[in-house]
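Example 664.
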Amino acid sequence: MSNQNTIEQLRQQLNEYAYHYYVLDDPITSDSQYDDLYKQLLALEKQHPHLITTDSPTQRVADKPLDGFKQIKHEIPMLSLGNVFSSTELVEFDKRLLDLAQLNAIEYSAEPKLDGLAVSIVYLDGKLFQAATRGDGTIGEDITANIKTIKAIPLHLRGKNYPAKLEVRGEVIMTKSGFDNYNKQAEIKGEKTFANPRNAAAGSLRQLDPRKTAKRPLMFYAYSIGVISDELSFSTHIDTLNWIKTLGIPVNNLNQQVIGASGCQEFHQMIGQLRDTLNYDIDGVVYKVNNLALQKKLGFVTKSPRWATAHKYPAQEATTTIENIDVQVGRTGSITPVARLNPVVVGGVTVTNATLHNEDEIRRKDVRIGDTVFVRRAGDVIPEVVKVVLQKRPKNSKKFKMPTHCPVCDTKLHRIEGEAVLRCPAGLFCDAQRKHAIKHFASRKALNIDGLGDKLIDLMVDNGLVKTPAGLFHLEKNELISLERMAEKSANNVLISIENSKHTSFDKFIYALGIREVGEATALTLAQQLKTIDRITNATTEELEQLPDIGPIVAKRITQFVQDKHNLLVIDELIKAGITWDEIQTPTADEQPLLGKTIVLTGSLSQYTRATAKDKLIQLGAKVAGSISKNTDLLVAGEKAGSKLAKAETLGVEVRDEAWLVSL
Ligand code: 5U1
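Predicted structure in complex with 5U1:
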């Protein structure tokens, strides 16, 4: 084969791999195989520089920084979108269009609205010619050199059926995982970090040196076309997007065709539930009239199309000021610094406190009292301080110093080597830990003591009625009635609930003890494998490590817990107080269809968090491993599965999807 043919074949192969990876979301090669081919191509092009073409995969990164960004006028203005913020406004939007179109129902393309940067990319004769930011909608900046570094964007369109000129519009984003990695690395190198993935994507595209942009984990999803030289042969927007995909350009795979306001509302809800599990930020969804002729008929209002609207979600991030910083004592004595904030609405909820995690984090982010900060609240996660707005730091900002003694019991705090957190070692003799331990013991997944809420537990501990979980079983009615706002009937109900909780299951009892790192799944393993409390309290770390899914850290936590004689005393008192459980049954093969199987999880899952999926697999009898090896029986691959999937395929490991896990 001639050098030219080899080079062309290598390019084709690399483009095909990229298409499967970025567009079809279905990789067919491993990263290392891709890299090998890339190196072969690079070497051949070096030997034969006259054969280099501008659309070769090796030509993504220009080797010189730009002097500045040229301005580019968009041939067709890049419009913005109108907004609806509620289902009432959505119904009004739909009704307005129904009236104008004289129809009974309208079909929409419903799409996630990515929180990135809108860009326009022009292809001439299939070759990426020019890319620009949206700018003010009429004039944007020439970011061609930077856009070319994004591997998801083809330098040459796929196939042969593309128009002479095609402008594709869409959003450049930075993935959440890429953003976290980028910020971590930037901190290590003492470089500028970004407040959120959107700012990171924007900052990356406004880089004058494309070699720097090339190192940023950027992604692109197309959502419409602009200028096109040929007449479109499609009658719907969704068909147009599907065609864009065949040209090798990524299109979001969550886009859906829906009917009417109710279909839009369902989509809004469904994407809202997925929001936290997605690897990119979204700030809403977009509804677009699907029929292109109807779009044309409906036309525009000033700067936005009448036929489309965005339906926003509450923002997950806001800025506010730090009024003070103090510390909280956790269930296991961990000391967490907490920022007391000027109240601010984040994700639809008023936030007054945000975690600062630990002393290292405060130092790393250089957070001070008086600072203006970005606060983020996503899903069930505790609000956290993400970044300081240094430009707004007041002159009198105050550094925070971690306490040396527990703010609740005054015991000297410890920092265990290798751990980031400070701890109060006083255990159940610290009132804060007492309260947490009793709350955990009574919680739904533990002994599930109805009517024993956090406030009541605080009152009981503050009034000296209970000191350990075992104390609950010695409570007297008159003691309860003596508490603030506790009537006789409520006191009776609480005592009945406590009595009813005495009979439980062994795994729930173990979970209720609140051993660090022992969640429900580990508690179940301990119960099923060791069967008696004595075997658990006498087990060595080596014995524990032999059990399915118990690693050295968990094993150490368990032995540390039982080495503390106060904990053994509490277990003893609980049993003496009358706590019982049925003998634990060894699960049947039917209940544990995955018994003995080693399973690896990869990619992002939409229905479960990774932790829940792991728990479910363990409950089904599987051992969950972190990496693929020849001993892996099965890989459960979610969305965007990458190198683990490729490795599994190379090793011939069976691969299943999330639906399979759900069906089990
Ligand atoms: N998914 C999507 N995002 N987004 C943003 N589609 C979409 N369309 C847009 C914008 C600004 O604008 C056109 C409908 C005008």
